């Protein structure tokens, strides 16, 4: 028990208090530094995030091992909505997400959003009300997809090789409903539009080759 991080301890204890006996933690359930196991598990991401009862997000922790529960400061301030940031894959594929913020819990599911302070501003934030079910049949789905690709092309993932597998789960969900041919980050029926992109800021060259260009 002492060998795992405080965040994993908190998450496991929290799940047990809810009388739930199973938890999936990526860095424990995927063999680290094993490319073959990583590839095998990456292909299952859509099922992994859509199957659980809910996803726990420790988004206010200072680092990955800081724990779910943060000390509440003497001077209380409104918690910014940016603290709700998390990867698109988890946010869109999960049926329900429980965010552990600095001063409260926030619950988001496919039908509502609620938080302990009852702040109305959270409910008005479109990025966190939007779920897969909201836009999978939307005529502007292509615009939403381009937003997801834009987010995943930011240098925020630990390794460049994570990018395509990370959005593959969302693509698999869309394909299950629409059966649109998927081509490694693009959709065949909108390929010309998808290729019409440009770089707004100075780019950077990846350290290793990720895919043919």
From TrEMBL:
InterPro entries: HET (IPR010730). Residues 3-69 form the Heterokaryon incompatibility domain. It comes from the Eukaryota. Coiled coil: none annotated. This is Heterokaryon incompatibility domain-containing protein. It comes from Zopfia rhizophila CBS 207.26. The lineage of its organism: Eukaryota, Fungi, Dikarya, Ascomycota, Pezizomycotina.
